[in-house]
Description:
This protein is an alpha+beta fold.
Amino acid sequence: MQFEHLVEINDLPNPAIADLTREEIWFGLLYRAEDPAVFLPGLETCEIVSRGERELVRDLDFGARVLRDRVTFEPLEWMCFEVAPGVDHAGGSLTISIEEPSPGALFLRFRYRTTLAEGAASDGVAVAAYVRSAYQDSDIETVRLIRQIAEQARMQ
């Protein structure tokens, strides 16, 4: 299954919502990579196994299973999370890109690539549609958390 969508960060005509800068968004994405527990429900611990100039390898402990993923990134542009297929996981990737079609109009584009078949169904339930909906909900929550992190940083 391949799935992508945009989440608007700055609602420029709406002064009630504080605008975020590209740097604040990037800081939130780095937070998600370094300390993902707040972003991933059920995550018990995250151990950074190795660190490079533009990548991290992490062990994500969800209690019943541990997943190893690789996070690569281009600062202020994009971040990609990749889980290799294994016994407990089908594998896949998520790339989050910062887009700015006009000055200050910032969006996050979420691109998912999974091994789930597009028309997958279980007991008559469209699994792929359910997964897409769950991804969207999670991504909206990610933006909410990034906004919260930025607000806390501004107060310090």
